Amino acid sequence: MKILFYDTKPYDKESFDKVLPRYPELSVQYLKTDISPHTAALAKGFDAVCVFVASDVGDRVVEILKDCGVKLVLLRSAGFNNVSLKAAKTCGITVMRVPGYSPQAVAEHAMALAFAVNRHIHKAYIKVRENNFSLTGLCGTDFYGKTAGIIGTGKIGAAMCRDCHGIGMKVLAYDKVQNPDLPFVEYVPLDTLLKRSHLISLHCPLSEETYHMINLEAIEKMQDGVILVNTSRGALIGTEDLIKGIRQHKFSGVGLDVYEEERDNVFENREDDILETSVTARLLSFPNVIVTSHQGFFTHEALEAISTTTLENALSFLKGDPIKNNIVS
Ligand code: NAI
Predict the structure, then answer these.
(1) pLDDT exceeds cutoff 80 at 328
(2) Domain boundaries, position 114
């Protein structure tokens, strides 16, 4: 099976090259460029394409892939909101993903953001480097004994519940389906979670139902001084509403690994660019907001799991095995 990799970064190549010798049936070609209606035709002659989380696999790209004879889209990610599943189904293209490469990696990054904004680590780091050893502006709150509200208790949300429980927080959760492995968690309606939580962390997928679930109405229900963390998908939060909330001093801290305008930024070095869109620039201007660039997944353990599962997916498709990680088949 010939697989064309799009949007390949050096660390992708390194981790896939390590496991590829175990899969002599698969041959791989790496491209730096991402997939788009302009680059999808490069897949002619390949059986499969492998893409990442910000790749545009919309209707047009799927149609081009079909015309190129591509039968399989391999996502090196858990999230799949960047793929037109409807078009894939119509075009007879199978879509497979890596459902849970390291839930702990993302949960630990969510915790890192929560700890950092709470104790102003981003400011402390800069101050001390400037020989400013004053504590003014650095006061935080104990998490111990406070309430965490976890929205979505699948693999990552469950890991986050365990982490919060481990540091002595009471854990509330909201999900459509209750996770039986979390006996210490109290499931409550969303409104109750918003009202009672000191730390709110988002771990549900982006869908029509969850789009902008954190809007002005939701923000108004939250406690003053709440910490909000999003490591899931940017559009779970209405950014304009978030900015209004920040300006109204609702949050003591906001930690975002994902945000609505991230697509052009994710994994790119844009240090010489002028950011033309004002929303990201405005978010970056607030002293109590930390933004990271979709790095929640980025640990050695997760990269190894991503490369192994992606190639196992390709192999099971090739062999016609009962498929485990398909979203569309
Ligand atoms: P999962 O599928 O194991 O869990 C998602 C949970 O959300 C499920 O329990 C589901 O019932 C719940 N859910 C779905 N719709 C909901 C709704 N309307 N209201 C409340 N809960 C709802 O997914 P997993 O692996 O835990 O990943 C969660 C999200 O994390 C992914 O969808 C992805 O967007 C994001 N992610 C972010 C990464 C990063 O690097 N920042 C890396 C990997 C995933």
Answers:
(1) no
(2) 103-291
